[in-house]
């Protein structure tokens, strides 16, 4: 029987999670089957169950590992002695980098989380809500300090996060600018648009 090929210090489970992210992005969580995943990994479907319990477990793992990375970054940035604009730029650069370098995981976490079941679904929705509130609070601090123009902070957060999720089309483009240029362009537009002059 074929064994799951591992490389770069990844465990067999890491390989399965990575292949699941690619599959869920391509087909959607609902349409992707364990048979599809087994084929992608290069093993019999039955042998996948030695490493994971279900397709749902994979979605849970993907969504929460991404959410935890973002929350950890938020903790880090909030603790820094920096201006609101500097904090926002750091968070946005992190978001952009994640969308460029961990695209499939972030895409699945952003689009397929609705297929989680409770208590995970409620927990995940709550994490998303808290994250956006914390992001908005940084913008509000910037407004109080006259760094940021008067805007509705929750709306600004939604616009910025939606713009970054649009990096999906950059991945699909055949004629695209480099990842570095993409990041600098987005920072220029998103951060530049906030600054109070």
How would you characterize the overall build of this protein?
- Helices cover about 70% and strands about 0% of the residues.
- The radius of gyration is 19 Å and the shape is elongated.
- It has helices spanning about 10-25, 35-40, 45-50, 55-80, 85-100, 105-110, 120-145, 155-165, 165-170, 180-190.
- The protein is mainly alpha-helical and about 200 residues long.
Terminal Cα separation, in Å?
Answer: 66 Å
The helix/strand class is mainly alpha
CATH architectural group of one domain: Orthogonal Bundle
Remind me, CATH topology of one domain? Tetracycline Repressor, domain 2
How many helical stretches? Answer: 10
Question: Percentage of helical residues?
Answer: over 70%
Pick out its properties.
197 residues, mainly alpha, 10 helices, Tetracycline Repressor, domain 2
Structure at a glance:
The protein is mostly helical.
Helices and strands, with pairings:
Elements: H1 12-27, H2 34-41, H3 45-48, H4 55-79, H5 84-101, H6 103-111, H7 120-144, H8 153-165, H9 167-172, H10 179-192
Helix pairs in contact: 1-2, 1-4, 1-6, 4-5, 4-6, 4-7, 5-6, 5-7, 5-8, 5-10, 7-8
């Amino acid at each position: 029987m074929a064994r799951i090929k591992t490389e770069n210090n990844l465990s067999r489970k890491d390989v399965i999670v990575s292949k699941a992210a690619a599959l869920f992005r391509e087909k959607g969580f609902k349409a992707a089957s364990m048979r599809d995943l087994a084929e992608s990994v290069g093993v019999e479907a039955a042998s996948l169950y030695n490493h994971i319990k279900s397709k749902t477990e994979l979605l849970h793992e993907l969504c929460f590992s991404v959410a935890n990375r973002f929350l950890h970054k938020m903790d880090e940035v909030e603790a820094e002695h920096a201006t609101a604009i500097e904090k926002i730029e750091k968070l946005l650069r992190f978001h952009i980098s994640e969308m460029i370098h961990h695209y499939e995981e972030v895409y699945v976490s952003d689009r397929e989380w609705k297929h989680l079941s409770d208590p995970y679904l409620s927990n995940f929705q709550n994490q998303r809500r808290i994250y956006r509130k914390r992001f908005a609070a940084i913008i509000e601090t910037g407004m109080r300090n006259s760094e940021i123009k008067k805007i509705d902070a929750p709306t600004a957060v939604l616009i910025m996060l939606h713009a970054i999720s649009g990096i999906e089309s950059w991945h699909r483009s055949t004629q695209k600018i480099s990842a570095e240029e993409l990041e600098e362009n987005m920072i220029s537009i998103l951060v530049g648009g906030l600054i109070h002059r």
